[in-house]
Structures are given as C-alpha cells and as structure tokens.
C-alpha cells in the first residue's frame, strides 16, 4: 500500500482529498498546520476527519504559531472581507492571502514524506472556484514539483515524491459531487474564515462553499448564521 501525506486543513477541499486518497487505497498520513489562523475551529474539524477515516494515530498537527503573518487570516489588525459578490472573489489577490503559506506547507509535508518513504503529497488546491491565491495555481504546483525532483534524494534517485492535486481543475460543485460519491464526511468539515460557530455564511470561504453546494444540487450539512 502506497504511503501518502494528505495536507488536511479540515475544510471541504482537504476532506475531499482524504476521500480520494482512501478510495485509491492509499495509506494516509494526515498533516495539519496550526499557523495562528483566526479560524482555529478548523483544527478540531481536521481531527474529526482524521478520526472518521481511522487514521488519528498517524495524524500530525505542526505548530507554526508566529511564523506566518501579513494576512487577514492571521493578523488582528486586518479584517476578513465579508459580503463580497461571487464575481468579486478571485478577481484580485485578497487580504486573506497568507504569504508563503503553501510553500511552507509543501516544504514541511515533503520533510515528513521523504523519511516515511511516502510517494505522494495530496494538496486540495483549486484554481477555478477559488479566492485568487497565487499558490493555488497549476504554475506554482509545477514549479514546486521541480523543487522536489531536483532537491531531494528521492527525486535524484528517480523515485520522487509526487504532488497530487486532484481538485485543481474542478469547480466547487464538481468537488462536492466527487466527495459525495466517495462518502466524504462533509458534516465534519469546516470552511469559515471568521472562525464562527455556526459558520458565518458571508466570508469568501463560506460563499464559495455555499455556491458549490447549491450548484451541485445538494444541501450543505453544516449550519450557518447567514446564507446570503
């Protein structure tokens, strides 16, 4: 059974990646990052998703508190945007962009993967219904794959570690349909940038999630304070 790292935030996309990796028969090692995000509720969601798949014993949470900043997701003096129209989301790089986040996440996932002899890192990035982050684009993934190929023993020896991004060219509705088909536990997932319980329903993450469920013709199983 091939070992894989799944970067598990606890959100909808990473939960779908867990379902895809499980359906492919992989031995999953979930990896979650506590980076000072305001929505720390997602850490508990990640724990619950890992438990649902029976891999709590292999689930690792890495504390990066104080390392990442410069974002509305991490800085107290920056407000998380709410109430934006779907057409506005993704038009420009938003204030919720966290500088170097996926660079750091992939580097640390790679540091976990190589000693485990894991063959892939699953990352739930998406370049269609997304918030406009530059580190979610195919160009970034291709560039980091080259880093792995040229900067690791595994890569030099010809059995490198793949970055698997099964959602990158899917809409949110397509992601949700895929997850439902595979039994993804969306009822345990959490997406709200505000960190509110129930989810706010007005931040970019909530709006994109709700749009996806609506277009998929399925009811989102988590509660919201506001549904637009």
What is the overall shape? globular
Structural class: alpha/beta
CATH homologous superfamily, by name? HUPs
What Rg do the Cα atoms give?
17 Å
How many individual helices?
7
Distance between the termini: 44 Å
Oligomer: single chain
Strand content: 5-15%
Mean pLDDT: 95
**CATH fold group:** Rossmann fold
- Strand/helix succession: EHEHEHEHHEHH
Uncertain regions: pLDDT < 50 for 5+ in a row? none
Which percent bin holds the helix content?
25-40%
Which strand order spans the largest sheet, edge to edge or round the barrel? 3-2-1-4-5
Secondary-structure arrangement, i.e. CATH architecture: 3-Layer(aba) Sandwich
How many domain regions?
Answer: 1
Please describe what this structure looks like:
The protein has a single domain, classed as Rossmann fold (3-Layer(aba) Sandwich), CATH 3.40.50.620. It is built from seven helices and five strands; from the N terminus they run βαβαβαβααβαα. It has 228 residues and is of the alpha/beta class. The N and C termini lie far apart (44 Å). Strands 3-2-1-4-5 form a five-stranded parallel β-sheet, sandwiched between helices. It has helices spanning 12-23, 41-52, 101-116, 138-151, 153-156, 172-181, 204-216, and strands at residues 3-7, 27-34, 60-63, 120-122, 162-164. α6 (172-181) crosses α7. The mean pLDDT is 95.
Short description:
GO terms for molecular function: ATP binding; ligase activity, forming carbon-nitrogen bonds; zinc ion binding. By secondary structure, the chain is α/β, with parallel strands linked by helices.
